[in-house]
Amino acid sequence: MSERDKDTAMPDWSAYRGVLIFVEQRGGRAKSVSWQLLGEGKKLADKLEVPLKAVVIGHDVERLAQEAVCYGADTVYLCDAPELKEYRTRPYSRVMLRLIEDAKPEIVLFGATATGRDLAGAIATHLPTGLTADTTELDVEPHPSRLLLASRPAFSEKMMATILCKQYRPQMATARAGVFQALPRDASRQGEIVRIECPLKEEDIATQVLDFLEEAGGVNLEEAEIIVAGGRGLGGPEAFRMLEALADALGGVVGASRAAVDAGWIKHEHQVGQTGQTVRPKLYFAIGISGAVQHTVGMSNAETIVAINRDENAPIFRIAHYGIVGDLFKIVPAITEQVKARRG
Ligand code: FAD
């Protein structure tokens, strides 16, 4: 074997099999990225001809283990203990490290959320293994290499890089919410639920969570089913009140393009796109937004897109399911009136 072959030769990883998804929850509610990852994980597991596994960690979360089965998991590891009620790095990472040691999955996926990023980083450092953050495409090479092809934007988001982890197992990645599609929920699916022990007692944990303070006026674009987004065409911050009225009437939330955020008209947490949130709502209004690729990459997976723009050649109309050409200052209040009238 040449020196170069020695460098690239992969160790024998045949003991590691299966794809494991971390099901993230807070207060017993799963983050939708968990179900989206199960949908994508199923494709990888089928290609590798291995079972799809999930892990649910928390307190009083047994129901979520069954939900994970409905969304595609064949086996769900459930670690349910009072010490795990709130996310804390040490107890959660200890549960995961022990599980990885016992179950030996070849791939482990997490949502690229604050929790997922923290947990995946802690585990990768401990094992140690590689971790690709913020992936937007996942694939696998079939047997014998069985390599995870984890792709993400690189070099100021100008190109896609595919990252491999040849020398360590498991292969780990975090993935953005809204990029992958969940399987339809199937209540008739059967799967195995395996209970695992929490390895720590409260006295072994140095940190305590005293309280959660929700940010006033905070927006959760990731989980929103209806988003009413505005761009530079709004001309200023006042026009966002008009969008809020439409969003309120529809039961949705307000999103924005980067141009509107950079102008200081609305906070960054509302930004949709490459450097904002990736969203997958049922209904997305793009109002006074031209449709630059850096915006559409974050919303093109919406089920229905309605664009309102006075320029009939605006690129947003190429991906919109419904397009309204005209002045947003006339059209938006008219739609809001109609929605309110129909809702009584
Ligand atoms: P514009 O392109 O100026 O479009 C305004 C639109 O409003 C026009 O189409 C106009 O016809 C219409 N309009 C004006 N007045 C009216 C009216 N009265 N009635 C109806 N229509 C009207 N952008 C994002 O959105 N999200 C990102 O995450 C993001 N990330 C980026 C990352 C990088 C590395 C780079 C280089 C750029 C990024 N951008 C992002 C910026 C992106 O390239 C565009 O500049 C931005 O999306 C444009 O915002 P806009 O559509 O609101 O503004």
UniProtKB/TrEMBL annotation:
SMART domains: ETF
Cofactor field: FAD
GO BP field: fatty acid beta-oxidation using acyl-CoA dehydrogenase
One Pfam match: ETF_alpha
Keyword Ion transport carried by entry: no
Residue intervals of the Electron transfer flavoprotein alpha/beta-subunit N-terminal domain: 19-209
Keyword set, alphabetical order: FAD, Flavoprotein
Gene Ontology MF annotations: electron transfer activity; flavin adenine dinucleotide binding
Binding site for FAD: 232, 257-258, 271-275, 288-295, 309
InterPro entries xrefs: DHS-like_NAD/FAD-binding_dom (IPR029035), ETF_a/b_N (IPR014730), ETF_a/FixB (IPR001308), ETF_alpha_N (IPR033947), ETF_asu_C (IPR014731), Rossmann-like_a/b/a_fold (IPR014729)
Cofactor remark: Binds 1 FAD per dimer.
Domain of life according to the entry: Bacteria
Similarity annotation: Belongs to the ETF alpha-subunit/FixB family.
Protein name (Swiss-Prot/TrEMBL): Electron transfer flavoprotein subunit alpha/FixB family protein
Taxonomic lineage: Bacteria, Bacillati, Bacillota, Bacilli, Bacillales
